[in-house]
DNA sequence: AAGTGGTCTAGACCACTCT
DNA sequence: GAGTGGTCTAGACCACTTG
């Protein structure tokens, strides 16, 4: 039927379909974890052939927005789950026991200019700041400073810290309804300041690896700025290039 | 026509086709840079529908083995070209002028066990070892130690070093017929030994970033082990996770 | 104008998962 | 067995590149 006209947005019809489907997902028409309607149904609804809708869904799968499972269906992806910070570091006894977390401080204040800019906030905006220590067994391994935008993360600004558990992202979801969908980590090397060195039980000026993370939700808004510091000699990461 | 039987290797017919095409490419039926026959011709030759052959070629394109250009054809990829080592480092005046190279030494000797293992060589095999300095302007920036397997790279073991130019991979291709197709870089952190520090004009024990590279040709054989060292404070790298 | 890859369709059958 | 995504086909038209 619809023979000509490739359509408008990117270029191809399946590209446009992917954009449309992405919008419906972001607007919450199907919550994370839920199954989308069958390909046939979606194709009919949008008035395209089955293969075209498949192409669109495959695109969204490549982008990590949905997950396709043979014989079961197509599901909205439920964001980043685990504690992927430790993939940058090798601590001797890791892998045996899961890393634990301890919140060192929690306060509200204006952020440095680069942090505010990363979050898309005004330089004078008040944000939520967390300092956190991550441990393997009893050994302090990573020091983190985390900035969160404040109307959104108000539920974390009060209440008991003990009930938080070891992972933040599941907490973001339960308390604030925020799904972390994508993150960008910038790696560099530096030296520990005195206070940072103290909690990590290293000497001031000790070489450290710094991972600056910017995390985004499904809609593409930045919802977290995080700086992680760890002993440089424990750092290890592998990149494949083609 | 050929309705049933999904075929053997991986599972799908297009998967098997991709494997077959990969073999033909690796065996040199079409040299790097050359154009493959048209999809129609290949599909007819293998007795499959056009769409199936397209799927197979798309797969090879994803894997970086071929490159598809609209309206022109499908081409065997010519391997890694540039000097992608500098993507891990930010030196102030980089980007303005291209980095230069200076070979510090060239000799034949047995390699440490891990190097030999990485190259798939016996621990006692004699290999070609290069030490190289990379400069931006007149400023020494990176120090490299490069190990190459020896029957293959014999053409580099003799002759004038001045004619080598600033990039190794094009040289590998011209002199030895080796295409670097894929590489794996392992990033870690350490301190400069005395000799390394001297050529980089830094102090002994200065913090450094270490990039350990393992490079492979189209057939998947490791053809280079390289260790690159640079000032840790100049290191910078970004990872996107989903 | 001819040749290439890119998109779209319509319909068939296969493989997996759940009940 | 019913429903899902995965594969394959056959043929049409579109968009880009080159002579």
Secondary structure layout:
The structure is a homodimer of 242-residue chains.
Chain A (H helix, E strand, L loop, with lengths): L12 H14 L12 H8 L3 H13 L3 E4 L3 E4 L23 E11 L2 H7 L6 E11 L2 E10 L1 H4 L14 H9 L5 E10 L2 H7 L6 E10 L5 E10 L5 E5 L1
Antiparallel strand pairs in A: 1-2, 3-4, 4-5, 5-8, 6-7, 7-8
Helix pairs in contact in A: 1-3, 2-3
Chain A binds a DNA duplex (19 and 19 nucleotides) through α3.
Concise summary:
Two copies of one chain form a homodimer. Chain A has seven helices and nine strands. The first copy, chain A, is of the alpha+beta class.
Describe the structure.
Two copies of one chain form a homodimer. By secondary structure, chain A is α+β, with helices and mostly antiparallel strands. Chain A has seven helices and nine strands, in the order αααβββαββααβαβββ. Chain A has helices at 13-26, 39-46, 50-62, 113-119, 150-153, 168-176, 194-200, and strands at 66-69, 73-76, 100-110, 126-136, 139-148, 182-191, 207-216, 222-231, 237-241. A six-stranded antiparallel β-sheet of chain A has the order 3-4-5-8-7-6. In chain A, strands 1-2 form a two-stranded antiparallel ribbon. The two termini of chain A are 41 Å apart. The interface between A and B is medium-sized, with 26 and 26 residues. The first copy, chain A, binds a DNA duplex (19 and 19 nucleotides) through residues 1-4, 6, 11-14, 35, 38-40, 48-52, 54-55, 57, 68-74.
Query: β content of chain A, as a range?
Result: 25-35%
Rg of chain A, Cα atoms, Å:
21 Å
Number of beta strands of chain A: 9
Bulk shape of chain A? elongated
Please tell me the overall pLDDT of chain A.
91
What is the H/E string of chain A?
HHHEEEHEEHHEHEEE
| Greatest interface | A-B, 26 and 26 residues
Oligomeric state as shown: homodimer
Enumerate the spans of chain A where pLDDT stays under 50 for 5 or more consecutive residues. Answer: 1-8
How far apart, in Å, are the first and last alpha carbons of chain A? Answer: 41 Å
């Amino acid at each position: 039927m619809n023979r000509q006209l490739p359509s408008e947005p990117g270029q191809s019809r399946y590209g446009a379909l992917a954009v449309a489907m992405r919008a419906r997902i972001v607007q919450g028409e199907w919550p994370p974890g839920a199954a989308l309607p069958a390909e046939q149904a979606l194709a009919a609804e949008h008035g395209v052939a089955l293969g075209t809708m498949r192409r669109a869904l495959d695109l969204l799968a490549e982008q990590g927005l949905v997950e396709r499972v043979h014989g079961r269906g197509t599901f909205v992806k439920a964001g980043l789950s685990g504690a992927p910070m430790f993939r940058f570091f090798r601590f001797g006894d890791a892998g045996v026991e899961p890393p634990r977390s301890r919140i060192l401080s929690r306060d509200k204040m204006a952020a440095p200019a680069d942090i505010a800019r990363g979050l898309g906030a005004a330089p004078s905006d008040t944000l939520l700041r967390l300092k956190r220590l991550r441990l393997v067994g009893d050994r302090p391994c990573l020091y983190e400073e985390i900035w969160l935008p404040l109307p959104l993360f108000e539920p974390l600004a009060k209440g008991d810290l003990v009930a938080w558990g070891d992972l933040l992202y599941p907490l973001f979801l339960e308390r604030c309804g925020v799904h972390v969908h994508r993150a960008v980590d910038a790696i560099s090397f530096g030296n520990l300041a005195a206070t940072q060195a103290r909690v990590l039980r290293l000497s001031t000026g000790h070489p450290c690896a710094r991972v600056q993370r910017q995390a985004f939700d499904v809609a593409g808004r930045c919802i977290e700025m995080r700086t992680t510091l760890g002993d440089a000699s424990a750092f290890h990461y592998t990149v494949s290039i083609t």
